[in-house]
Amino acid sequence: MPLAPVDETVAIGDLVRDPYPIYRRMRAETPVVRVPAVKRTFLTKAAYTKMVKDDVVLFSSNDPTTPMEPAFRAHTLMRKDGEEHRRERMAMQKAFTPKVIKTNWAQLYRDITDRYLDRLPRGETVDLYSAICAPVSARILTHILGLDGASDEEMMRWSQQLIDGAGNFAWDPKLFEITDRANEEMDLHIAACAERLRADPDDSALSLMVNAADPIPWSQIVANIKIAIGGGINEPRDAMATILYGLLTNPDQLEEVRRQEAWAAAFEEGIRWVAPIQASSRLVMEDTVIGGIDIPKGDIVMSIQASANRDEDLFHEGEDFRVFRDKNPHQSFGTGPHHCAGAHIARRTVGEIMMPELFERFPDMRLPDPEAIVWHGFGFRGPLSMPVTLN
Amino acid sequence: MVKVTYVAADGTRTEVDAPPGSNVMQTALDNDVDGIVGECGGAMMCATCHCYVDEDWSDATGARRDGEDDMLDCAADEVRPNSRLSCQIRLTEGLDGLVVHLPEEQV
Ligand code: HEM
Ligand code: HEM
Ligand code: FES
Fold first, then answer.
1. What domains does chain B contain, in order, with CATH numbers?
2. B27, B6 contact by CB (below 8 A)
3. Which intervals hold domain 2Fe-2S ferredoxin-type (chain B) (predicted)?
4. Could you count the other beta carbons within 10 Å of the beta carbon of residue A74?
5. Is the ipTM of this complex over 0.95?
6. Running DSSP on this structure, what letter comes out for residue A341?
7. DSSP three-state, residue B86
8. What distance in angstroms lies between residue A371's CA and the mean position of ligand 2's atoms?
9. Three-class secondary structure of residue A142 per DSSP
10. A3 and chain B in contact, CB less than 8 A
11. What pLDDT, in 10s, does the model give residues A22-75?
12. Closest Cα of chain B to A99: distance in Å?
């Protein structure tokens, strides 16, 4: 079989600005393609992206050469496979179930959302991205994880610093100095919260882990909490901002969503249309073949769910935001053993609580200048602001 | 082939044929049966493939697998004694005629 064709034309800057036309071309012409600018082999068809994530023996998450380990100062579950991965993940999974949210916390999350909405002025244009999407996501996550006492600003800063560190493929020591400081702050706070939760347990992830009959090692409890901080704020924030944009620029769909209370469908379509996490890398463990192309052992493939989500084989008019699709088999939460641990939480908090509350409070809000919204990101993607006129 | 019947929460029945060796989640996806999401592809990590095995088939499908109980706790709908993650039910000739009931919610 031939080796993957090489695409020298693609630069990282183009992907960061707008990867979608590039992915559309790749799906049509070179669905398996080497991209030297990123040093990865891109997989852009839904069948390939799913196959790769489902098969952890052939396509491992355990790539020791990523900057994730120094950034988190830990070997985290995201970079493990097999039994150790399952054990560490299941140690916190039960804090992220729909039942815990419904029975214990739904009212609290409604109250939190209301409190932030109460602060908004009427008749003015407000950046909902920074006023609502980011801090409400942070506040809710603080509760789910058991990190009471951490401020919104701390949570958001830690999250961003972890992400910047884990994405530090240039190995810039200054960035690791920043993550080192953030890690020290988090370590102290997590330890203090653990002590409180040992004396007074609740349903939070940290409480569940420290009070388990057969707990995982402390280092991994801390690592799990940090992964959830890194993965649990920006994605719901970006998802919410994207859905807002989709609905406010498609008033006919918004009206229908309201009428049918189809907020869950709006959530699914928002994260399909612009996946908050656009791609996941995997290390190839043995020589193999994908789509008739030889993929050598040691190669790193990028399973690009952003592209899979618009694959013509699965989606009609996939480039457009259309809430009322017959089926929506997007891969925005990944698939396989590393399928997002927070998927149920994100669906319940953003889809069932935050979006409907916001539109109930400000039924006539408008997006005055959709053209002015800047979209950004290759690994992670979303709008950089969402200035909306509230009524 | 193995015949599988899916009974949706509203009572709609869908009958499909599947090759032995597949599983009840994958068979639903392959045949466009609504009511099973199967988002993690059968890795037992999402609980969006929850089903209730018909009483007549509980012996034939056997006990839950290792770890399945824990993941079932993450299902959106009520968990009952006959609850299973459908990705963990492998189809064999012995399951020809299997009937499973689907919950109202998977996510
Ligand atoms: C709309 C919001 C979200 C999206 C789109 C999203 C997306 C994803 C994706 C694509 C992965 C898979 C990574 C891979 O394949 O390597 C993942 C993993 C993960 N996510 Fe999310 N996520 C969201 C919200 C959350 C929230 C709220 C939490 C925390 C409560 C969370 C916690 C995690 C964890 C812990 C993992 C690692 C799972 C593992 O490796 O086993 N996510 N997420
Ligand atoms: C939860 C904490 C996480 C942090 C702090 C983090 C940070 C990053 C960042 C920013 C990159 C991008 C570097 C590049 O594009 O070259 C990276 C590598 C990668 N990870 Fe993660 N990530 C986390 C979780 C995830 C998850 C859940 C996914 C899901 C796929 C993910 C996706 C990426 C992407 C897109 C890259 C791209 C680079 C590569 O090919 O390795 N990250 N990590
Ligand atoms: S498909 Fe995810 S648990 Fe069965």
1. 36-90 (3.10.20.30)
2. no
3. 2-106
4. 18
5. no
6. T
7. helix
8. 28
9. helix
10. no
11. 999 999 999 999 999 999 999 999 999 999 999 999 999 987 778 888 999 988
12. 7
**Strand stretches in chain A, DSSP E:** 32-35, 40-43, 59-60, 125-127, 280-284, 288-290, 293-295, 300-303, 375-376, 382-383, 387-389
Around ligand 2, the residues with Cβ closer than 6 Å are A 40, 66, 78, 162-163, 166-167, 169, 227, 230-231, 277-281, 302, 378-379
Please provide the DSSP assignment of A31-86 as one string: SEEEETTTTEEEE-SHHHHHHHHH-TTTEES--TTSTHHHHHTS--GGG--HHHHH
pTM, to two decimals: 0.91
For residue A366, give the DSSP letter: B
Tokens matching residue A172: 């810039």
Residue A54 and residue B42: Cβ atoms within 8 Å?
Answer: yes
Among candidate residues A231, A142, A343, the one with its CA nearest the CA of residue B76: A343
CA-to-CA distance for A67 and A72, rounded, in angstroms? 9
Of all atoms in ligand 2, which is nearest to the CA of residue A63?
A: 41
Determine the Cα–Cα distance for residues A311 and A330; give it in Å rounded to an integer: 10
Burial letters A26-46, b for 16+ CB under 10 A, else e: bbeebbbbbbeebebbbbbbb
**Record: contact B73-A97, CB cut-off 8 A:** yes
The pLDDT tens digits of the residues spanning A285-308 come to: 999 999 999 999 999 999 999 999
